[in-house]
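New to this. Please check this record:
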Amino acid sequence: MDSKNDDPTFMVDDSNYLALRSIYTQGKSVLSEAETLIVDQSSIERIPGGWLYNKYSKHHIIFLRGLNLLGLTCELSGFIAGEYFSRFGERSAPTNESPFTIDPYFESSIWIFILVLSVFLIPVLFKKSTNSISFLSEKLKYYHFPVCVLLGAYIFSRRLYSETISFIFNDLILIIVGILLVIVYSNIKYEEDGRYMVTWLEYIGIHLQFSVLVALVLVELCRCIIITIIKIDKAQSDEMFGMSFNSWTVLIMSVLFVLGVIFMTMYKDIYFAAVLGYNFFGVYVMQRSSCIEENCYDDVQEAALILGSLTYGFIFLTILFYPRLICYNLRARR
């Protein structure tokens, strides 16, 4: 950087430093530490237009870190409490009257996987690298905290309560969480290759986690909506808008499958598709178990098996033909 240049204050996008150049800083970068975007609040206040960089100030970054850590704690607490009070997988009231019901062990395992990925997110939040600070202050912002808190409430509620009002409550939670996650997902995913470089830790903690989480919330929302409609239906009819609930289930799973293919095509996001396929197999296993004890939905069982197999087939083809684009934003550090 030319120290004699008196250009106005500006931010260089996708750089490894925050450039605040003006005659007030004598052309020097106002950095608290090297290789980081974090700046001192006092330094920002001395520069005209410095308020634009408040999101990179130390106290703001510390606040975001603490807020996200608190949110992850709420999510973990909700899972542990829900599993404990439901005796780790045993439901107080079964919901297998819905054709779109996933095996409880499939559900628990994927939520455990989400919590494990959250462990990788924690050190990312506390790293001082450009990517980590940019992710926290520009992409994650305040979206992640309500997501974690609401998911903790949902995980706890879905295990213990089977009343109609609780399912409506869960539907509202998942809708809000879904909107917030789509915003975060759109911020961190790109169609093109090689936008920037991240480490393995950042890749797992950020990109992998939110791909899995968005897909899981989408599946949970579809499942809860069908259960809610069945419970609200006082006449106990087997149809909605002229279609049976099992036909609706097959249709919804087909739409989810198409979404998985689209995400693999646009973003090469095999993790999003893998979660969908995993849940399809969870539906298949649940239907197989239901056939032993009571009536089951043969068409849902067959569709779940076919769609799950096709999903993982497309994942295999994506890995085979686009191996370098699977981890498209993973590069070795310079």
About this structure: Residues 200-232 form the longest helix (33 residues).
